[in-house]
Amino acid sequence: MNTIYIDSFEKYLKEIEEVTVPRPYFRGQAKRVSDGFVLVPSLGRPDFKVPKRLSDLFDFECRVLDTFANHVIGHVNHIPRNDWEMLALAQHHGLPTRFMDWTTNPLVALYFACRNAINGSDSAVYILTKPVKKYSDFLRYEENKHRDILPVGDSMTEKVHDFEEEDPYDEYELGSLSEKSDLDLAMMSNLQTMLRDAYESEKQSRDKSVAKSSELTKEEVASPFDISENIIYDPAHVSPRIRAQDGVLLACHRPLTPIDEDDYIEYVIEHKKDNHRKICKQLEQYGVFDKQLFPDLDGMAKWLKYKEFENGL
Q1: Strands across the sheet containing 26-29
Q2: 58, 144, 168, 219 — which has fewest CB within 10 A?
Q3: What is the pLDDT of residues 217-272, one digit of tens each?
Q4: What is the pTM of this model?
Q5: DSSP secondary structure string, the chain?
Q6: 91-102: pLDDT as tens digits
Q7: CA-CA distances (angstroms) from residue 39 to 54, 84, 248?
Q8: Is the pLDDT assigned to residue 171 strictly greater than 80?
Q9: 231, 232, 236, 240: CA torsion to nearest 10
Q10: How many Å apart are CA 18 and CA 185, to the nearest integer?
Q11: Which among 202, 252, 210 is positioned nearest to 227, based on CA atoms?
Q12: Structural contact between residues 91 and 98, judged by C-beta atoms closer than 8 angstroms
């Protein structure tokens, strides 16, 4: 494990600038891995009683999620479409899952490392260095299995064909009206109507296929319990907090096993010289503090408590 010691906000910024990971993900913790806060999802915490065999764990997770899903209706505005969205919702409301909270924002990770730091203890920020497949890449494979048409171009959101770019009837030259008999004109009119109807029908069919590919149902999307590698998932329709914190979820295919120490860098935020408090003050100047990261009354109260009652910043 590569460990770097941080004794100031400026030192942290300098070290982050030197990170060469193409797509870095950050996680801030009040305690280090070496202090027992291993990088494992909540499902894998030692104080929870869960099956240890993966096959039994799969059945256990499915049963728990089904129970949670049965109580969702009536409590949310958006009904999750598949197990990924349902599990993200469960994670947000405190249910132990195989998801781990990470962020794409290094300052947010630093906030969580320093804001909740325990007096006399070092905290840490962790950066994943091993490439992790994104959910969109995983979903692309699933979409191609269930769609009847192939995408054009590199973007999965690109329309399959842009029928508005050209006139679909150009190849059917109708000629001068003066040269056509009434019968010819009637036949041409019928042909034009048939072609237009066929075009509209094909366009609607393709539009439905494209729309369907972006709204795959539970049966059409592989479950997060079926993955064979870790996946980064960017949840939707869960909470404004996740957006404010640039949050992503790491779906762990072996949720009881901590992330290997060769797969991350550890930035230790030293507690000496009132370091955590100083960093929190500087983070607030950058707009990273409770009220911004928790855009609700809880966040406002937490920020006001910290500012006026705890530190008098």
Answers
A1: 2-6, 264-269, 123-128, 26-29, 99-103, 247-251, 231-233, 133-134
A2: 219
A3: 445 567 899 898 999 999 876 778 788 888 999 999 999 999 999 999 999 999 98
A4: 0.72
A5: -EEEEE-SHHHHHHHHHT---SS--EEEESS-GGGT--S--GGG-TTS---SSHHHHHHHHHHHHHHHHTTTTTT-SS---SHHHHHHHHHHTT---SEEEEES-HHHHHHHHHHTPPTT--EEEEEE-S--EEHHHHHHHHHHHH-SS---SS-TTS-S--GGGS-TTTTS----GGGS-HHHHHHHHHHHHHHHHHHHHHHHHHHHHHHHHTS--TTTS--TTS-SS-EEE---SS-HHHHHTTEEEEE-SSTTSPPPGGGEEEEEE--GGGHHHHHHHHHHHTT-SHHHHS-SHHHHHHHHIIIIIIS--
A6: 988 999 999 999
A7: 19, 21, 15
A8: no
A9: 140
A10: 73
A11: 252
A12: no
Token pair for 45: 């915490």
User: pLDDT band at 168, cuts 50/70/90?
Assistant: very low
Nearest Cα residue to 37 out of 107, 118, 93: 118
What's the number of CA atoms in the CB half-sphere (13 Å) around residue 218? 13
Contact 33, 39 (CB under 8 A): yes
What distance separates the 2 farthest-apart alpha carbons in the chain? Answer: 97
The answer to whether the CB of 97 falls within 8 A of the CB of 87 is yes
The C-alpha R_g of the chain, in whole angstroms, comes to 27
Q: Are 126 and 263 in contact (CB under 8 A)?
A: no
In angstroms, rounded to a whole number, what is the distance separating the alpha carbons of residues 98 and 233? 12
Q: 């950050």: which residue's tokens?
A: 26
